[in-house]
Amino acid sequence: MMEYLMVAPVASFIFAITTLTSIMAFSNDNLYANMILHPYSVSRKHRIYTLITSGLIHNDWMHLFFNMLSFYFFAFRLESMLGHWQFGTLYFVSLILSDLPTVYKHRNDDWYHSLGASGAVSAVIFSFILFDPLSKMMIMPIPIGIPAVIFGALYLVYCNYASKHSRDNINHDAHMFGALSGLLITIVLMPHVVHGFIEQITEGVQSLLH
After folding, report:
1. Can you give the residue range of the structural domain that contains 184?
2. What is the CATH number of the domain that holds 32?
3. pTM of the entire predicted model
4. How many structural domains are present in the chain?
């Protein structure tokens, strides 16, 4: 635990506060209602703060588990590569940006609500992909790891399709725009990451051809 606090204090704080707040909201309806994103209200300049607080609560234990598991796998390593304040900026700015399309899309839907850290977690994953595009990632039910850059491409294609055609309760727009925000913010903060990304991809392709 102390090692995580030393290497990635910002990620440690986000992990702890998101887990704690989510668990509290499971049994506190008032807290849940005050923190959840309501695009109808936000679009009318009410409850603007929920663009952030909605990322600190989750629908149920499974929702919390998968988001924090993904966060755990990537966030702590990313902070060591990106930097502390840079990681915090990436996370919270992406949290906001990932929700703005949802606010616009559902600005007239009084019934619609959204919550969860999925947008910001997607940003973390895609930022990591820029730094290490050839690392292996798993997609269920594929039994072997695939290069992160391919995972990223498939993820964006799926999110775009699901956003248009899915009838589930998952906010696929937040996933997609969170991922894109992660790419953009990382490049703005560390422009040289693009050169490293291209170089790794080039070397990977060359190794396959020889």
Report:
1. 2-209
2. 1.20.1540.10
3. 0.93
4. 1
